[in-house]
Design a protein that fits this description.
The chain is built from eleven helices and seven strands. It is an alpha+beta fold. Among the domains are: 80 residues, no CATH class; 95 residues, Chitinase A, domain 3, CATH 3.10.50.40. The chain has a four-stranded antiparallel beta sheet. The longest helix has 31 residues.
Length: 274
Amino acid sequence: MKKIILLSIIAVTAGCFEASVDPSKVVAKVGSHVYSTDDVTAKINELDPQLKEYFDKKENKVRLLDQLIDQEVMYQLAKKEGIDRTNDYKKILADMERQAVVNIYIEKQVNDVAEVTRSEVEAFYNENQDQFGSYESRNVSHILVKTKPEAEKVQKELKAGSSFASLAKKYSIDPSNNQGGELGWIRKNQLVPEFADAAYKLTNRAPVSGIVQTQYGFHLIQLNDVKQMPEQPLDSVYGAISEQLLSQKKRDKVQNLLTKGKESIKIERFVDNL
C-alpha cells in the first residue's frame, strides 16, 4: 500500500533548476535538477486528506523524496539514451495529445449545458414515485442450490429442525452463504420476479417458502423482518436528482455532438477487412 501511494504521486513530478530554489529549502539535487520542500509539499497536497496523513511522519516524506530521486535518475538516463527522439515515444505522445484534445473539446462543449431547473427536478420526482414513495422493505435470507433434488434435501433437513443459517452455510452456492444466507434489507423491485413474489408472500406465521426456481437455480427463502420505509421528501433527494439530470444532459450533449459530427464528416467502414 505504501509503495502504491508513493508511485501514484510521483508519476509526473519535475524538479527545478538550482538557481531558482531557496537554498534553505533544497532537499535533493539530481544532476542539474533540484527538489525543494515546496515540490514535496505540492505533491502531498494533491492527495485526499486520508492519504495526506501518511506523510505526517518525516520518514514517509523521506521515502517519497527517495522515489522522486529514483524517478529523476531514470528520466535523465532515458534522455541521455535519446528515448524522447524515438518513434515509440512520439507515438505515445501523439496518442496522449489526441486524447487531451478530445477531453478538452468535450469539456468545453458540455460546460455550457444549462443548470437543471427546479421544475425539471420536481417533474422527475413526481414521475418516479416508485423510487421515492413509501415502500415495504424486507429482510430475507435464502439458500441457493443448483438442482431441485438438492433443494428437496435441504428442505427436509430444515423441517427436521436444522437452522436456516447453518444450512445456508453448508449448502448454499450464493456468496451470502457466509452470512447464513442473509441478503439484508431489500425492496421488491430489486429482485427477479419469481424470487420477489415468493419473498413478499411470506408472513411471520409462515416465514419460510417452498422451493422457488429462478434463472440462478433453486431457492428456499426465509423472512427475517419487515419494515415500512417512509416517502423521501423532495428536498432530501433534490441534490441527487439534480446531479443525475445534469449528468444525463451532458451525456445527451456529447451524443448530439457525435451524431452531428458523423453527418458532417465522411466516414467509410470496411468491416470485411477486420
